[in-house]
């Protein structure tokens, strides 16, 4: 078959394919760097590879090769032969920073997150998660049985919540409402930040007993434990779901949204914080949301959604999509829905 002249491949295209195919190797590099704690050991000043090798108990020559791969991936700079310092990306692997991504890296490179990806073709053929084929149970039940992964997951969620807590309080007029219920709100980081900026607003933090066990919230915030598939607290006129909807398929989301619709007043509002995919993939667009979407397919059974997907999801549960506002960082949006 002849190839049309308009679809000729360039040397850069060949290089792109090679880099994409080797992407799993880069994943292992950053995962190993996180496991060894190299960013914490390097700290603020350049450090010789030989010194690091002695500290972490690694073969000096092999560690040098790992560090040079990290430099090629722009996590480090080799300031002179065998001496390395962190880059702006590399410092995010440190554990002593409020913007640390160390736990996100640990969670994402954990075998429980990677092993089922070998069956991506099966997930695409069947249209359903394959995690249980590898581990014999669903992701969240497995999470409960793996303390290391659970700690990485919970810490990564807390770190994500801190970012949302910086932008969400000023992204919406919370002061127009009386009580905000954060459904699946974990340790209350986001809710506490909103309440701090809106002193007349009351709060309800709702999560599993384990989820709210370490929550620290203001006195005007009530903590309630439960299962959002069964029921959610009444008594609020504003409901928040952050990074909840994408974990579940439409049927499970309908249960959560239906429970909220059953208790929200007619003048109330539902806020959902999630990525919103465009209706058509645009050239140069970040691949992160699409890779996250496939991860939801492979491991959790959920999905990332377009604006039209959210509109249909809301309509099936008695809501109407009202507005979508991109949030910094641009990967997330504030999605507003009202009772229909």
Which CATH-level-2 architecture of the largest domain?
A: 3-Layer(aba) Sandwich
Strand content: 15-25%
Which structural class is indicated by helix and strand composition? alpha/beta
CATH classification, class level of the largest domain: Alpha Beta
Helical stretch count?
A: 16
What name goes with the CATH superfamily of the largest domain? Vaccinia Virus protein VP39
Helix content: 40-55%
Give the C-alpha Rg.
22 Å
Major sheet: order of its strands? 6-5-4-7-8-12-11
Unreliable parts: none
Q: What general form does the structure show?
A: globular
For the sheet with most strands, the description reads: 7 strands, mixed
* Mean pLDDT level: 93
Order of helices and strands: HHHEHHEEHHHHHHEHEHEEHEEHEHEE
Distance between the termini: 54 Å
Protein described:
By secondary structure, this protein is of the alpha/beta class. The chain has two domains: 11-95, Arc Repressor Mutant, subunit A (Orthogonal Bundle); 139-339, Vaccinia Virus protein VP39 (Rossmann fold, 3-Layer(aba) Sandwich). Helices cover 45% and strands 17% of the residues. The protein has 16 helices and twelve strands. It has helices at 11-21, 23-36, 38-42, 49-56, 60-72, 102-108, 111-114, 120-126, 131-135, 139-145, 147-167, 189-197, 209-212, 250-263, 288-300, 307-316, and strands at 47-48, 76-80, 83-86, 179-183, 202-207, 221-225, 238-242, 269-274, 276-277, 305-306, 319-327, 332-339. It has a seven-stranded mixed beta sheet, with helices on both faces. The longest helix is centred in the middle third of the chain and has 21 residues, at 147-167. The radius of gyration is 22 Å and the shape is globular. The model has no long low-confidence stretch (mean pLDDT 93). Residues 19-93 form the O-methyltransferase dimerisation domain. It holds the Pfam family Dimerisation. The active site is at residue 246. InterPro entries: COMT-like (IPR016461), COMT_C (IPR001077), COMT_dimerisation (IPR012967), SAM-dependent_MTases_sf (IPR029063), WH-like_DNA-bd_sf (IPR036388), WH_DNA-bd_sf (IPR036390). It comes from Amycolatopsis cihanbeyliensis.
């Amino acid at each position: 078959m002849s190839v049309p002249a308009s679809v000729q491949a360039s040397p850069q295209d060949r290089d792109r394919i090679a880099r994409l195919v080797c992407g799993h190797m880069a994943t292992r590099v950053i995962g190993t760097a996180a496991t060894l704690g190299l960013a914490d050991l390097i700290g603020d000043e350049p450090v010789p590879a030989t010194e690091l090798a002695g500290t972490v108990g690694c073969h000096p020559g092999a560690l040098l090769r790992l560090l040079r791969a990290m430099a090629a991936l722009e996590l480090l700079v080799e300031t002179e032969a065998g001496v390395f310092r962190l880059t702006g990306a590399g410092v995010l692997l440190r554990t002593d920073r409020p913007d640390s991504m160390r736990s996100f890296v640990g969670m994402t490179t954990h075998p429980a997150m990677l092993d089922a990806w070998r069956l991506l073709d099966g997930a695409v053929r069947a249209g359903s998660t394959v995690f249980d084929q590898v581990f014999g149970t669903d992701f969240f039940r497995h999470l409960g049985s793996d303390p290391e992964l659970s700690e990485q997951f919970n810490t990564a969620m807390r770190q994500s919540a801190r970012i949302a807590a910086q932008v969400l309080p000023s992204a919406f007029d919370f002061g127009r409402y009386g009580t905000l219920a954060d459904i699946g709100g974990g340790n209350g980081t986001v809710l506490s930040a909103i309440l701090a900026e809106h002193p007349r607003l009351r709060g309800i933090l709702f999560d599993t007993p384990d989820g709210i066990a370490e929550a620290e919230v203001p006195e005007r915030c009530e903590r309630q434990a439960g299962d959002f598939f069964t029921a959610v607290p009444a008594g609020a006129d504003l409901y928040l779901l952050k990074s909840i909807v994408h974990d579940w398929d439409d049927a499970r989301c309908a249960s959560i949204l239906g429970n909220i619709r059953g208790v929200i007043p007619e003048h109330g509002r539902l806020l959902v914080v999630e990525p919103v995919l465009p209706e058509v993939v645009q050239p140069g667009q970040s691949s992160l949301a699409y890779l996250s979407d496939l991860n939801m397919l492979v491991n959790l059974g959920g999905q990332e959604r377009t604006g039209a997907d959210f509109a249909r999801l809301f309509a099936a549960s008695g809501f109407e999509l009202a507005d979508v506002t991109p949030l910094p960082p641009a990967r997330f949006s504030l999605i507003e829905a009202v009772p229909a």
